[in-house]
Design a protein that fits this description.
Blueprint: H1 6-14, E1 23-24, H2 25-31, H3 38-46, H4 53-58, E2 64-65, H5 80-89, H6 102-105, H7 112-120
Parallel strand pairs: 1-2
């Protein structure tokens, strides 16, 4: 069992999502070994609104969308349009109905060794 909190693990993984790509809440949960924790990933990203502004800026929360490829705001401080704007600024094409083509922009994820590093960090 890791000493690092689940939220901190989520933030560490989300920080590694490359600019111009997206992933889903469920994929983040699965990579962290908690395949049924997609909502908890959403809660972790939503909790960033309670953190200092610098913390929000260092975790690219906007790169996490729902499994259908739609912008699905969990961080209530920001609107879906703001998330779409941030993604577009990184080169991710977001349609007017807030969809992202996952075939084109989905991040493949981390290698299991990198995931193990996140889970072992204190």
């Amino acid at each position: 069992m890791s000493d690092k909190s689940f939220y901190e693990q989520v933030y560490a993984l989300v920080r590694r999502i490359p600019r111009g790509t997206v992933t889903s809440y469920g994929r983040v949960a699965h990579m962290l070994g908690r395949p049924n924790a997609a909502r908890a990933v959403g809660y972790a990203l939503s909790a960033l609104k309670d953190e200092h502004a610098d913390r929000r800026k260092e975790v690219p929360w906007h790169r996490v969308i729902n499994s259908q490829g739609r912008v699905s705001i969990q961080n209530r401080e920001y609107s879906a349009q703001e998330q779409a704007r941030l993604l577009r600024a990184e080169g991710v094409m977001v349609s007017d109905d807030l969809r992202v083509n996952l075939d084109r922009f989905l991040w493949n994820g981390l290698h299991w060794v990198e995931i193990d590093d996140i889970l072992r960090e204190k």
